[in-house]
User: What shape does this take?
Amino acid sequence: MEQILRLNNYLKQRFGCKVYKIALNAGLTCPNRDGRIGFGGCIFCSGGGSGDFASSPELSISEQITYAISKVRNKISDGKYIAYFQAYTNTYAPACYLSKIFYEAINHPDVVALSIATRPDCLPDDVMELLKELSNVKPVFVELGFQTSNEETARLIRRGYDNVVFDNAVYKLHEIGVMVVVHTIIGLPYETGDDIIETIRYINRLPVNGIKLQLLHVLKGTDLEDFYYRYPDAFLFMETDDYVNILGRCISNLRDDIVIHRLTGDGPKALLVAPMWSADKKTVLNKINQYLSKNCIIQGKEIRQNGT
Assistant: This one.
């Protein structure tokens, strides 16, 4: 029986050992926060810019890597690491600065790859050239926040760009040999199951290498929190079973060669407003795995199980 393309297995096959991500903070911001595109960011984005678990930007990149490795060294004896620039928009800076921090990370002896979270509208030509150079040193993943193919929803969440901008970025990254990982969110306001599956089908048509399927978290201090209290009926997938069921549909419709990097996600417990059941990640993952094991065939296609 063919299995799901699990990130852990994919990385082990590619690099020959267990590989872990360490979250780094480059001290950047976002054009959707500083006024170039908008203020306040996407409505779901916390003050940490989706990098609530990243290191402190007061440390150098090398210091952040050393610190992150030291925290897990007693659990990991033979692993390597992916340097993950997570917080905010990590190509939203002059290419000369990005070159300094990215090369500092990619040249670390324990780092086998670079992962850069960014927006598709923040990839100018000089940054693309830098990413191409980096990909000749070690593998480079660029993680693009897409969230949904429904442009009405995209306007509601203040994404700040049209689908064509995303499409162009994916093709350009593919052309220079950089692997593309797409972030999607399940449970955005007013979206139905069909809307979510259409996003999966939209991604299938593009040269995408990986996907993160993320549960929507309502966090304190975000504009989404206000929206949630004002329009609770807009949130259709906020129960565990609903989420697990739509997740199964997503996987069964996903192109076979796309690696699944995430099946849920963490919201900082101190900030989490809803859904509260998501705070117990171990239980959620167990329910997901039970569902995938039980429903190994959906609509005639095997669901390839993942444990992350």
User: Anything to note?
Assistant: The chain has ten helices and eleven strands. Residues 296 and 303 are 5 Å apart (CA to CA). Confidence is low (pLDDT under 50) at residues 297-308. The longest helix spans residues 240-253.
